[in-house]
Amino acid sequence: MQGILITDDYSYLDMIERNIRYKIQQSPDYAEVQDFEAGLRDFKTRVANYEKVYETVEEGSYIKMIDMASGRGGQIQEKRGYAL
């Protein structure tokens, strides 16, 4: 079954959570923030504001995932079917 990727949503959610935590720990934006939870709230507020102006990609489908902690990642173009 060449070209088929089967994954679960939890692996994406785990990667997203790790990336958020890594971003807060490593970003100069949060270097002066002593309270990790305050940084987490600020970052999630930023993401919510970005979501208000981002537009969905309509032509074809495209997924790009990068695990910022390990640097590993990949991309899928023209995905058809369902991610399991």
UniProtKB/TrEMBL annotation:
GO molecular function: 6-phosphofructo-2-kinase activity; ATP binding; fructose-2,6-bisphosphate 2-phosphatase activity
Pfam families to which the protein is assigned, alphabetical: 6PF2K (PF01591)
Domain 6-phosphofructo-2-kinase: 14-72
UniProt KW Transmembrane keyword: no
Record-linked InterPro entries: 6Pfruct_kin, 6Phosfructo_kin, P-loop_NTPase
Keyword RNA-binding (UniProt): no
Name of the protein described by the UniProt record: 6-phosphofructo-2-kinase/fructose-26-bisphosphatase
Organism for this UniProt entry: Trifolium medium
